[in-house]
Amino acid sequence: MIKTVVGSYPVITKEPENLWEKVLDIFGIYDRYKYAIERAVRDQLNAGIDIVSDGQVRGDMVEIFVNGLYGFEGKKVVGKVEFLEPITLKDIKFVRKIINKYSNEKKGIKGIITGPCTIAGSVRVEDYYTDNRDETLIYDLANALKKEVESIQDYVCMIQIDEPILSTGLYDLNTARRAIKRISENIKIPVALHVCGDVSDIFQELNTFNVDILDHEFASNRKNLDILEETNKKIGFGCINTKVKSIESIEVVKDLLNEALEILRNNPLFSEVQSNEELLKRLNEYLMVDPDCGMRLLPIDVAYDKLKVMVKASEEFERELRER
Ligand SMILES: [Zn+2]
């Protein structure tokens, strides 16, 4: 199974050390976050992750995008929201350099954007739009974010749209569906939608969104497991609890994967599976494993150890299934 991350990673910046870095710093062009990206990518590679992220180190999931879009002053909306220039492309190209430097294996990069409803719900509307739920604001955000996706799609192997706010019930799911469609249609690589929290009540609707993969929390939200019986999309299977600092055992993660497997067997997508070999093939097509959510708030050694546990557990799970 493909192993990936949801996105964010603990941020370890580096102050200027040598003379040249200090000179750059005087001119305001020393980039403290480059080290943070390098550290995040190296940790993911060392842990055995197949599709890595840039660690989303330059700010929280909203800051990263509003800082790069026209129409914002900090987290305040002061004008019509529009795309200005690629926001994450430079860091994605840097991630590719780090991969080439540290890994001989084939590794992919996940392009991540924060969804229009989540951004709209996290900013203060001061001008141009009526309020946070103004549909025009949501669609303008979607149009701008689509251009961001178009600017990075040649450099990544999949796109993930983060819309945690959809599980809170604050946003109309029909509006969200239309906004996501604007972003995802005519994109030439797979698009995932990450919604954390309990999605068991809104899952039927999420299943109709124009995305290829639904990515949810299963370690900390066991109610979500029922989704596996009905989904007709690929699933990003969050199997590591990112809300607690304690590191789960390999056994706990394997148990969760086995539980998922038993439920998936009832899914029509798995109905014709005969042998364990076919089962593994189908699992590889429909499931990718990742932690429940971003890891930004965890201590870095905890985040790294959790990724290692996830990779070991999924490899052991596959091996045991093959031998069964
Ligand atoms: Zn999340």
UniProtKB/TrEMBL annotation:
PANTHER family: 5-METHYLTETRAHYDROPTEROYLTRIGLUTAMATE--HOMOCYSTEINE METHYLTRANSFERASE (PTHR30519). It comes from the Archaea. Residues 1-315 form the Cobalamin-independent methionine synthase MetE C-terminal/archaeal domain. Keywords: Metal-binding, Methyltransferase, Transferase, Zinc. It holds the Pfam family Meth_synt_2. It comes from Methanofervidicoccus abyssi. GO terms for molecular function: 5-methyltetrahydropteroyltriglutamate-homocysteine S-methyltransferase activity; zinc ion binding. Its EC number is 2.1.1.14. The keyword Metal-binding applies. The keyword Metal-binding applies. Its cofactor is Zn(2+). GO terms for biological process: methionine biosynthetic process; methylation. This is 5-methyltetrahydropteroyltriglutamate--homocysteine methyltransferase. InterPro entries: Met_Synth_C/arc, UROD/MetE-like_sf. It is an enzyme of class 2 (transferase).
